Amino acid sequence: FGVALAKQNDCAAGPGTTCAGTSKVDYQGNAWKLVPAGTCTTMELPDGRMGSLEALDRDLPQG
């Protein structure tokens, strides 16, 4: 995961979120957004990071 902007995730995005639009930070590692097939892992994010087909332990909200 890690490809959705803050408040633009689809459905629940892991701990601390309940449904669509509840992610707190850009590229939150446990937040996902439906994108065309094959683009999640090739989508280049800031700092050269990439999206993932699984939840990531990065860019998680603090507190």
List keywords for this structure.
0% strand; single chain
Q: Would you spell out the secondary-structure blueprint of this structure?
A:
Blueprint: no helix or strand
Can you offer a commentary on this structure?
The protein has one domain (1-63). 0% of the residues lie in helices and 0% in strands. It has no helices and no strands. The mean pLDDT is 87.
Query: So what's the overall shape?
Result: globular
Spans of at least 5 consecutive residues whose pLDDT stays below 50 are: none
Return the average pLDDT rounded to an integer: 87
Write down the domain tally. 1
In angstroms, what separates the terminal alpha carbons?
Answer: 21 Å
> From the alpha-carbon coordinates, what is the Rg to the nearest angstrom?
10 Å
Helix content: under 10%
Structural class determined from secondary elements: little secondary structure
- Number of extended strands: 0
Strand proportion: under 5%
Oligomer: single chain
Q: Main sheet, how many strands, which sense, barrel?
A: none
Contiguous helical run count: 0
